[in-house]
Amino acid sequence: MPRPLTRKLEDNVNYLKELLGVGVSFDIGVREFNIKNVRIALFYCNSLTDNYAIIMLIKELLLLGEDDVYLHKHAFQIIHNHLALHQVSIMDDLDQMSTAILSGLIVILVEDELKGFALDTRRYPGRNPEEPETEKVVRGSRDG
Question: Domain tally for the chain?
Answer without folding.
Answer: 1
